[in-house]
Amino acid sequence: MQTRAHTHIYLYTHFCVLMCVFCGAFMQHWRTQLKHTFVFILGAAAILFIYLMNCYEEPAGSDPGPYHVAYPRNYRFIMDNTSTCRSTTPFLVLMVPVAPGDAAARDLIRQTWGGESLVLGRRVETVFVTGLPGGGDAERTQRELRRESRRHGDLIQSDFRDSYHNLTIKTMVMLEWLAERCRRSAFAVKVDSDVLLHVRNLVALLLEPGTARRNYVSGLVWWHSPVVRNPFVRFYMPRAVIAQSEYPPYPLGMAYVMSLDLPARILEVSPLIRPIYIEDAYLGMCLQRLGVTPTDPPRGDMFLVAPRHPLTSCSLSKVVAVTTTSPSQMRSYWERSREDVHC
Questions:
Q1: Overall domain count for the chain
Q2: 317 in a structural domain
Q3: Do 162 and 260 belong together in one domain?
Q4: Structural domain includes residue 227
Q5: pLDDT (tens digit, 9 = 90+) per residue, 57-114?
Q6: Which end of the chain offers a freer environment for a tag, N or C, measured as fewer CB atoms within 10 Å?
Q7: pTM for the complete prediction?
Q8: Can you give the three-state secondary structure of the chain, one letter per residue?
Q9: Quick one: 246 and 126 in the same domain?
Q10: 145 and 22 within one domain
Q11: 127 with 249, same domain?
Q12: Residue 136 is part of a domain; what is its CATH number?
């Protein structure tokens, strides 16, 4: 009896071992299949997510997230009484994006380089681009903007909320205005309000025989600009937004000039490229889709984004655009740039 019991135990033990081996093999096979299935589903979900991130057009009024902006949209101009490109046809239009409440910057530009209307025999006109003011004093700021517009006739305002995050919207609205109004003009320059523009040098550059009248974009061109992947660094962009490691070449937003055949063409391709909040990089993405490559200026000292101040009179005589650190410095540089310096 004891022997039979031992035999039963022996057989049962072996049976259990065999069942464990079988179950283990089955579970291993099942886990492998499950793993492959999971990887497949995860990959498909990732591809779908990337597709939606690049192609999805969010409904009006929705939050596009921290990296995108809600453009294109049907923004409209609520202030536009300037005569520029309406009753005049300037050779060069100076477009200055500026905050609604920054009347001091606009006045300084009007008194300096923005007040130059005839340069080397070519007509030059300045227009300021702004959006809706925010904050508790928005109504007062808007009233002051209307008075300023009646007084100077050089403001255009669209109904987007003016903010740093919406600089891409401001740029695209600027292009909309140029495409609609200034097709007969030759060039436009977008220039930040803290930048000194040497208008004479810019017009001279545009009049050179080698300067193209079509497909022309120039400024301080950034080539092979890396996409920032560190989330703790400014201008961070996750791979889900931009998979490429580099941005297409683009002119730095401080100041760039373009031929006026381009605004309408950029607007045509912009719906195909979901806009990011880095406005100059987005411009480069649109230019790449058009097959247009920015042109380096003839000299590297013509566009200076972070120069060592103060600049010499010789340096000022060569620049096209240079960032300044204060209103007094801009005024001083403008006065010195008008001196007849040869070096």
A1: 2
A2: yes
A3: yes
A4: yes
A5: 344 445 677 888 877 668 999 999 999 999 999 999 999 999 999 999 999 999 999 9
A6: N
A7: 0.81
A8: CHHHHHHHHHHHHHHHHHHHHHHHHHHHHHHHHHHHHHHHHHHHHHHHHHHHHHHCCCCCCCCCCCCECCCCCCCCEEEECCCCCCCCCCCEEEEEECCCCCHHHHHHHHHCHHHCCEECCEEEEEEEEEEECCCCCHHHHHHHHHHHHHHHCCEEEEEEECCHHHHHHHHHHHHHHHHHHCCCCCEEEEECCCEEECHHHHHHHHHCCCCCCCCCEEEEEECCCECECCCCCCCECCCCCCCCCECCCEEEEEEEEEECCHHHHHHHHHHHCCCECCHHHHHHHHHHHHCCCCECCCCCCCEECCCCCCCCHHHHCCCCEEECCCHHHHHHHHHHHCCCCCC
A9: yes
A10: no
A11: yes
A12: 3.90.550.50
Same domain, 5 and 143: no
- Shared domain for 108 and 154, answered yes or no, is yes
pLDDT at residue 36, rounded to an integer: 56
Domain extent for 281: 77-337
The pLDDT of residue 69 is 86
With respect to residue 68, please indicate whether it lies within any of the assigned structural domains: no
Q: Mind listing the pLDDT tens digit of every residue in the chain (343 residues)?
A: 333 334 343 434 444 444 444 445 444 554 555 455 544 555 554 444 434 334 333 444 456 778 888 776 689 999 999 999 999 999 999 999 999 999 999 999 999 999 999 999 999 999 999 999 999 999 999 999 999 999 999 999 999 999 999 999 999 999 999 999 999 999 999 999 999 999 999 999 999 999 999 999 999 999 999 999 999 999 999 999 999 999 999 999 999 999 999 999 999 999 999 999 999 999 999 999 999 999 999 999 999 999 999 999 999 999 999 999 999 999 999 999 999 888 8
The pLDDT tens digits for 3-16 are: 333 434 343 444 44
Residue 169 domain flag: yes
Residue in the structure block whose two tokens are 């961070």: 236
Distance (Å, whole) CA 293 – CA 275: 19
Domain shared by 260 and 307, yes or no: yes
Residues 107 and 247 in one domain: yes
